[in-house]
């Protein structure tokens, strides 16, 4: 497994020079997560990663064809989303705010880590995640972490800023 710090060290200069700024173009659903709940993020190409909810975490559901779910820490959630309205069963509708910096992954990127179609690396939440050719590698404005967004879901949720 490739460590998060190694991914940042290698890809951050590439993202800074070749990346583009994107913003989320779709609303999200979110609610407070139940501590101890295991969330498996599933995209159209399969299981992406997993994470266990801690006190205060938010469960986010993107409005994509796969309705992928993931967890976000409270401070990050407050930075990234604004409340719009309440929904059923504790869910709320939220407007994304802010931007990300991203690159689309090529075979050449993966070959640096010995991969041809995929590589596995440590996500910011310390779990294994997979990166495939065509996916997007993303960093927030703080450039303190790096994570994957699957190609199909990226196209359904992001637009160039």
Description:
A hairpin with a 5-residue loop joins strand 10 and strand 11 (128-132). The protein has a 5-stranded antiparallel sheet with strand order 13-12-9-1-14. By secondary structure, the protein is α+β, with helices and mostly antiparallel strands. The N and C termini lie far apart (32 Å). The protein has helices at residues 4-18, 74-80, 107-111, 151-157, and strands at 20-24, 28-32, 38-43, 46-52, 58-62, 69-72, 81-86, 92-96, 100-104, 118-122, 128-132, 136-139, 147-149, 158-160. It has one domain (4-160). The radius of gyration is 15 Å and the shape is globular. It contains 4 helices and 14 strands.
Tags for this entry?
21% helix, five-stranded antiparallel β-sheet, single chain, 4 helices
Topology:
Layout: H1 4-18, E1 20-24, E2 28-32, E3 38-43, E4 46-52, E5 58-62, E6 69-72, H2 74-80, E7 81-86, E8 92-96, E9 100-104, H3 107-111, E10 118-122, E11 128-132, E12 136-139, E13 147-149, H4 151-157, E14 158-160
Antiparallel strand pairs: 1-9, 1-14, 2-5, 2-8, 3-4, 5-6, 7-8, 9-12, 10-11, 12-13
Q: Short description, anyone?
A:
By secondary structure, the chain is an alpha+beta fold. The protein has helices at residues 4-18, 74-80, 107-111, 151-157; strands at 20-24, 28-32, 38-43, 46-52, 58-62, 69-72, 81-86, 92-96, 100-104, 118-122, 128-132, 136-139, 147-149, 158-160. The chain has one domain.
């Amino acid at each position: 497994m490739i460590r998060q710090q190694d991914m940042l060290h290698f890809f951050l200069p590439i993202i800074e020079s070749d990346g583009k700024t994107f913003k989320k173009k779709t609303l999200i659903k979110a609610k407070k997560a139940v501590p101890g709940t295991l969330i498996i993020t599933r995209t159209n190409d399969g299981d992406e990663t997993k994470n266990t909810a801690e006190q205060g975490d938010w469960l986010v559901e993107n409005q994509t064809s796969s309705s992928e779910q993931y967890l976000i820490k409270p401070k990050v959630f407050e930075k990234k989303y604004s409340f719009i309205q309440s929904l059923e069963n504790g869910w709320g509708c939220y407007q994304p705010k802010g931007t990300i910096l991203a690159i689309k992954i090529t075979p050449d990127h993966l070959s640096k880590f010995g991969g041809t179609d995929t590589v596995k690396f440590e996500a910011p939440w310390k779990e294994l995640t997979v990166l495939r050719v065509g996916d997007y590698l993303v960093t927030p404005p703080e450039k303190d972490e790096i994570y994957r967004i699957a190609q199909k879901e990226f196209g359904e949720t992001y637009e160039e800023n």
